Amino acid sequence: MTFNPDADISGGKVKRRGRTAGIAAGGVGIGAVAIFLIAQLLGVDVSGLLGGGTTGTEQIGTGTDLQECTTGADANASVDCRMKGAAASLEAYWATELPALGGRYTSPEFILFTGGTSTGCGSASSATGPFYCPSDRTIYVDTGFYDELRSRFGSSGGPLAEMYVVAHEWGHHIQNIGGIMAQHTSRQTGAASDSVRLELQADCFAGSWAAAASTTTDENGVAFLQPITTAQIQDALSAAAAVGDDRIQEASTGRVDPEGWTHGSAEQRQRWFTTGYQQGAQACDTFAVTASRL
Questions:
Q1: Which chain regions cross the lipid bilayer (predicted)?
Q2: If 125 and its partner were Cys, which of 25, 68, 269, 294 is the partner (CB 3.0–4.6 Å)?
Q3: How far apart are CA 162 and CA 141, in angstroms?
Q4: Per the structure, how many domains does the chain have?
């Protein structure tokens, strides 16, 4: 997915944290609260594939603004600026879409880091994968995860695949401020569990944003993104499938156990992204469908 070169992305609310202190990466240094939220509810716990016990760095503080990222051309040229561009587009989309659905929109924080960082949900490492922390209403992304998507998870990659990840986590923010998380707090696992339904709804929300992305505009009326191609949609679907529970379980343990699912299968994640893409956010009520249709 390509940004219009003259689109204004300066309003994207993204910060990058610098390295400051040691942390045990690879799953050993992740705080207990973060493990629970990521593995059972929100993000993608990739520690089973990455292994454990390597020394990295923890990044703390508010971070610095990406002031060098101002245009769509910048977003096309670097991953950090692409994250800022995605944030600007998602912000503009949900500021209009959520009120249309009856909700009140407020912005999340968005932090980029490398290696490890402190969060409102505890310490997180690169093994955690991207996630949203409801306690501080912040999206955390180690941009190195995008390399893992390709090299370890088999995703085709590409800009829309990267932005799908951000749009999915933004979807969790919508669930949080919209009260959906508070309504569905069951900690059970399984193919039709609340955890899976939350994840699939976030995929659906990501698809709804993607469908509107080429008509979502900056303050000057310039569309942030050019129309999506079929190949770019396949990249996003590849990323959705790569982080399916069945794919991760098979890669890490050699077997698939639906009773342990917390995020949904590759097929489910692709299907709900497609539902949002084709039908919009109003079609994303994953809690209203029976288990057989999930």
A1: 21-42
A2: 25
A3: 10
A4: 1
Residue 48 lies in a domain: no
Q: Which domain holds residue 101?
A: 13-17+30-43+60-291
The answer to whether position 7 is within a domain reads no
Length of the chain: 294
Q: Please report whether residue 52 resides in a domain.
A: no
The distance from CA 101 to its chain's CA centroid, rounded to whole angstroms, is: 21
pTM of the model: 0.86
